[in-house]
Amino acid sequence: MIKKLLFFCFLLTYAFSFSQNPALSENASVSIFTCGRGNELYSTFGHTAIRIKDLNNNLDVVYNYGAFDFRTENFYLKFVKGDLQYFINATSFEDFIFEYQADNREVVEQTLALSLAKKQELFELLNASLYSEERNYTYKFIDRNCTTMVVDKINAILGKKLIDKVDDKSISYRSLLYPYFDNHFYYKLGINIIFGVKTDSKAEKLFLPVELMHSLDQAKVNQKPIVSKKETLVEGATLSNTFSFVNSIYFIALILLVIVVINNKYVSLIYLFISGILGIFLCLVGLYSDHEEVLWNYNALLFNPLYCILGLLSVVWFRKMATICFLTTLLYIAIMIGKPHLPLMIPFILANNYILLRLVKQAKKAQDSSSKS
């Protein structure tokens, strides 16, 4: 019984300690961490976090809006759907830095020149997020992530949209993201196939960690730079960019070439059927997902859902459907002009149309033979 009472008193004390935010001292500092890219898909774009340091209060905490739980039920379905819950967590500075040192990922710290009142306001705002319903938020690739959440918090305490994007806003989101996948060919291919029209719009949103770092470098409060100090805490390693034939467009082109050279009707129809299934997926995922990035996907013009029924059609209808597929491919090529991922799609454009054209000729030949007999 005594042990239960002691444990209950401990819980009360623990909860009360977090309900009261300590007053930061004059020596308190607020800084933004920009973390380098990693080898995993979720770390491809780097990371942003906020550090609150006050040695007078024995405080050195890093707040991180990029936490998620792989154990979430139906994790990948929720991610595709666009309702996966990310959350803010807090960890000690030592634990945070150790993780990035272990992964050889760069960490750059920018100390912000804020008044004590603004530091306190941000501290309370972060703790309010940490210990309330605001702890969880629905992740959105461009509109709501670890960087945008930090930008929102800083702008909130400043009372205006002081932190804004300074990098090139004239390029598209797709062009901006394209180089990030140089070390991950199949990620690059898959992402550019599943992304739709939104990613071809101008990249005006500040959502990447490195862009926030650049914006902070140029931001000013009361005509003075908001960054009072900038230093690299972890040097990090440069991501290797070694060529691998298997992980390249050349390997995909080789597979497509083999399919073409085999020159078998059933192999060709199976390939087109698989392409059509992919097209159906691209159409349906736009209806299923809340991610605006996958809406209105013109790649379905190349991976045409009509491919799925070609093997079931009579010769006359086959030729009609093939004509429609040729026209959609021409429309696709017109849309793709100037797009960064056009080189990735060229092997599919050539293979699909060559196979389709050959099947049309075979169908016509079979029809002519039938007529003569």
Report on this model:
This protein has 373 residues and is α+β, with helices and mostly antiparallel strands. It is built from twelve helices and nine strands. The chain has helices spanning 2-19, 75-81, 93-102, 116-130, 146-158, 173-177, 185-194, 209-218, 249-262, 265-288, 315-336, 342-372; strands spanning 29-35, 47-54, 59-67, 85-92, 107-112, 136-138, 220-221, 224-225, 227-234. Strands 6-4-3-2-1-5-9 form a seven-stranded antiparallel β-sheet. A hairpin with a 4-residue loop joins strand 2 and strand 3. Helix 4 crosses helix 5 and helix 9 runs parallel beside helix 12. 27% of the residues are buried. The model is unreliable at 1-19 (pLDDT under 50).
Summarize the structure.
The chain has 373 residues and is α+β, with helices and mostly antiparallel strands.
